Automatic annotation (TrEMBL):
The gene is MBOAT4. The chain crosses the membrane at residues 12-31, 43-76, 154-177, 197-219, 231-251, 335-355, 376-399, 405-428. The keyword Ubl conjugation does not apply. Its main location: endoplasmic reticulum. GO terms for molecular function: serine O-acyltransferase activity. It is found in: Endoplasmic reticulum membrane. It holds the Pfam family MBOAT. This is Ghrelin O-acyltransferase. One of its GO terms (cellular component) is endoplasmic reticulum membrane. Keywords: Acyltransferase, Endoplasmic reticulum, Membrane, Transferase, Transmembrane, Transmembrane helix. Coiled coil: none annotated. InterPro entries: LPLAT_7/PORCN-like, MBOAT_fam. GO terms for biological process: lipid modification.
């Protein structure tokens, strides 16, 4: 029953984001009414983030402050041509230390870990995204943080946009990753080309969050009512039970992403102009839509849609920079970034192998799908295969320890990724022979 208590405790993340919504609306309307200059906008966002960090994380908020201080220190002292290597190395060392500290407390000392520490480490992971994005921008000369001599008037406020970007209360606890250049241009353009009122879109997305939580509640009731017994339950019912558990775990992410989008939208972020019919398009910052992502018929397609801004960050940070085995290196870094638990090794390496298998299998099947009914049958089977594989990955990653592997084995759902990996090996062998 501890698993279900843990599932419900995750509402704390949603509540922290909801409590920040009034301040996001306040920021938007103060800017719209002309009460906040550019400097005060940056101050509002950064001070709000620092206060939110202290209130939600307590003493553990120092994890974020130390990380930001070291980053600014490196920007001032290291040449731009090698700044990214220094920032990446220092930030990942600091983050890994706290991930290993949590594992030490849980596994070796068998002590409960404070929810504030979990919040701080989760925010530190998001801080890693923003900091390394800036370091890559600086190294690639996409942004210039040091002012020129002819612009001395702005020299005193130059660090302010950076601190505001790092500690923005809209993205401190969660939210889609926004580039530093885009953040600055948005802050500067709020008065020049203000977005329309976000009240409607925020209400709509909050309704979607409530619906997702209702679906999750129904699924949790189903899981409690029909507890799976590996010794008396049928194979199909065990697979269905585990698929429902995986869906519950995924809905937590969809709810968290949606409420984070609400917070960004409430502050005026994410507006992309008007779409067809003059409907405001607020999809500029999004980590994934439930229907679009869950409708994916390929594992590789699901991987691109799942946590979309993080996937883009991983692609830029690792995939395009690695000359050897970029796919496995990307998923390998992802398991390092997530915390190096046993379940992370199983989950992310399985994901990498099944994505690779997905490319080979569809390359082999595509010429054979000539008729419409074959294509339809293939689509249905591929969707089921994707759902089963993603369920295995999510359960392994979320449960983190060896119990997840035992659960996947007794329900036989683990055969889905195993068969995909075996097919991958066979198709690689055939390619080598040909």
């Amino acid at each position: 029953m501890g698993l279900f208590n843990w599932l419900w405790e995750q509402h704390q993340f949603l509540m922290h984001q909801c409590f920040s919504l009034p301040f996001a609306f306040l920021f938007y309307f103060l800017v719209k009414w002309g009460y906040l200059s550019l400097t005060y906008r940056y101050l509002f966002v950064s001070v709000g983030g620092c206060v939110l960090a202290v209130v939600t994380m307590g003493v553990y908020s120092t994890l974020l402050f130390v990380s930001a201080f070291v980053f600014v220190l490196l920007l001032c002292s290291v040449d731009s041509s090698c700044i990214h290597a220094w920032v990446f190395g220092m930030q990942m060392l600091w983050q890994t230390f706290w991930h290993l500290f949590i594992q030490y407390r849980e596994n070796d000392l068998h002590e409960p870990v404070s929810i504030r520490l979990f919040l701080a480490v989760s925010s530190l992971m998001l801080l890693t995204q923003r900091i390394t994005s800036v370091s890559m921008d600086v190294q690639e000369k996409k942004v210039t943080l040091k002012p020129k001599a002819s612009h001395r008037r702005s020299a005193c406020v130059t660090p302010l946009p950076l601190i505001s970007y790092i500690f923005s209360f809209t993205t401190l606890l969660g939210g889609p990753l926004c580039s530093y250049g885009r953040f600055v241009s948005h802050m500067e353009g709020l008065t020049l080309n203000p977005p329309p009122s976000p009240l409607g879109v925020v209400f709509l997305k909050l309704t979607q969050v409530l619906l997702l939580e209702l679906v999750k509640y129904c699924l949790v009731c189903f899981l409690k009512l029909y507890m799976y017994d590996p010794y008396s339950s049928a194979v199909l019912s065990g697979i269905l039970w585990l698929w429902s558990l995986g869906l519950v775990l995924r809905i937590q992410y969809y709810s968290h992403w949606r409420i984070s989008e609400c917070l960004s939208n409430a502050a005026g972020f994410g507006f992309w102009g008007s779409s067809l019919g003059d409907t405001p398009d607020w999809s500029g910052l999004s980590d994934g839509d439930f229907w679009t992502t869950e409708a994916s018929t390929r594992v590789s397609e699901f991987a691109r849609r799942w946590n979309a801004t993080t996937a883009s960050w991983l692609r830029r940070l690792v995939y395009v920079r690695c000359k050897c085995f970029p796919l496995f290196m990307t998923f390998g870094f992802s398991l390092w970034w997530h915390g190096l638990h046993f379940g992370h090794f199983v989950g992310f390496l399985t994901w990498a192998a099944t994505v690779k298998a997905d490319y080979y299998i569809h390359k082999y099947l595509q010429p054979k799908l000539s008729s419409t009914w074959r294509k339809l049958l293939n689509t249905c089977l591929c969707w089921i295969n994707t759902q089963m594989i993603i369920t295995c990955i999510v359960i392994a990653v979320e449960l983190r320890d060896i119990s997840s592997l035992r659960l996947l084995c007794v329900t036989y759902i683990g055969l889905f990724p195993l068969c995909n990996i075996i097919l991958l090996l066979i198709l690689i062998k055939l390619d080598t022979v040909c």
